[in-house]
Structure formats: structure tokens, C-alpha cells
Design a protein that fits this description.
222 residues, 15 strands, mainly beta, 7-stranded mixed sheet, 48% strand
Length: 222
């Protein structure tokens, strides 16, 4: 499989995994299709009065509808940037990722494949957070969906051993994560497939710990 994934993994406030946006080919069989996406923004007031704003900007997808010359394979390279602001100098963690579905409507509720337990993907908040895996190489059949996180940050744990984190922590009221050419590789789906970005944020204040999710616009994988 062609691997155009080129994402730097870094940790810290305002961490960025940034490379050049994916290019699209022209005039070739099975040419890639570049899809600009609108991103989005939500603002939520927590029970203690803290105001949280999550934004998704610079979002795009570069889609190849048939990797391996078979309709069972799709490949896409996705890019975007997530920004979070919390009033009162609060902090938390940012978990960016994507949900991918095969012949399932992921623009509404009920897409629960690939999560830990049952979650409603249609709302702003997913109870307990998105229990997604890391890595975007997925095998899905009709009616199935699965989610994965963009980040895989390497850092030492409390005992000096290597640990992998799927989030970027922030403090002092703001944080961000940027990614580019993150691979979505889908196998086994003989029907219509689509994907959708999400940015889940766990916010911590002196009085509240809560989880909020911003959803991007669904887009076709072919």
C-alpha cells in the first residue's frame, strides 16, 4: 500500500504535527480528489460558568477511491487544525481523530462501532469520551463504523518507560494541535464509505471535569 503519511509526533502546549498539505494528481487514472472541508466551531458554558470554545480549521481530505485497483479499498490523506480556549485559565487534553463508516450514516446517531461501550455520535458530547484506537488502517463491512485518534505521542512514563498518548495536554486557557497527510486506509467495504473528523476535549477546572466533542462535516471516501 502506498504510504504518504508524514506526521510528526510532538507533545506540549500548542503541540503541532505539521507538514505540507497533500497534493492531488491530475490527468491520471484513479486520480486523487482534493476535498476542502468547512471545519467548524462550538462554544459551551460549563456548570461552573467556564466557557469552552473548540474550533476545527484548515480541514481537507485528499481521496483516492480505489487503492490496489479494487473497489474494496479506499485511501485518503486528511489534514486539519484544532484550537481550544477555556476561560479562567483552565486546562485539559485535546483528542483529535476520525470516524469512518461503511454503508452507515455517520452524520446522525447510532454509529457506535470501534468505541468502548455505547456512544451517541450525533451530539456535542460523547459520554466517557471517544474510545477510539490509534492508527487509520481499518477493515470494515457494511453497517460498521470505527474511530481512530490522530495523535500517537511518545513520552516517558513515571518509571522512565516509553508510553504512547493519544492526546495533547494544554494549560493556561488554550491549546492546539495541527496534523497533515494523516492516512485513512479502508479495506473490505464493498459499498458507500464516508468519514468524519472529531475533536474531543477533556476540560479541567477547579470545579469541573467534562468532555466535549466537536464534529466536522462528513465526507465521501467513494
Amino acid at each position: 500500500m502506498i504510504n504518504r503519511k508524514n506526521v510528526a509526533r510532538v507533545a506540549g502546549v500548542g503541540a503541532a504535527a505539521t507538514v505540507a498539505l497533500g497534493l492531488f494528481s491530475t490527468g491520471a487514472a484513479n486520480a486523487d480528489t482534493f476535498v476542502p472541508l468547512p471545519g467548524g466551531s462550538i462554544t459551551k458554558t460549563l456548570s461552573d460558568g467556564t466557557v469552552v470554545t473548540i474550533s476545527l480549521t484548515g480541514e481537507s481530505a485528499n481521496i483516492n477511491p480505489s487503492m490496489g485497483s479494487t473497489p474494496l479499498h479506499r485511501n485518503a490523506w486528511v489534514s486539519g487544525s484544532a484550537q481550544v480556549s477555556v476561560s479562567g485559565d483552565g486546562g485539559g487534553s485535546i483528542f483529535p481523530g476520525y470516524t469512518v463508516g461503511c454503508q452507515v450514516n455517520i452524520s446522525g446517531g447510532g454509529a457506535t462501532g470501534g468505541v468502548e461501550g455505547t456512544a451517541d455520535w450525533s451530539g456535542d458530547t460523547v459520554t466517557g469520551g471517544v474510545g477510539a484506537t490509534s492508527g487509520g488502517n481499518l477493515t470494515l463491512g457494511p453497517g460498521q463504523s470505527q474511530s481512530f485518534y490522530v495523535l500517537d505521542l511518545e513520552q516517558a512514563d513515571d518509571f522512565g518507560n516509553e508510553a504512547h498518548k493519544k492526546r495533547n495536554k494544554f494549560k493556561n486557557g488554550s491549546g492546539s494541535v495541527t496534523w497533515a497527510d494523516e492516512t485513512i486506509g479502508l479495506s473490505g467495504c464493498a459499498g458507500y464509505a464516508q468519514a468524519r473528523a472529531f475533536v474531543s476535549v477533556e476540560v479541567e477546572t477547579d470545579n469541573v471535569i467534562t468532555w466535549t466533542t466537536l464534529w466536522g462535516q462528513p465526507f465521501s471516501l467513494g
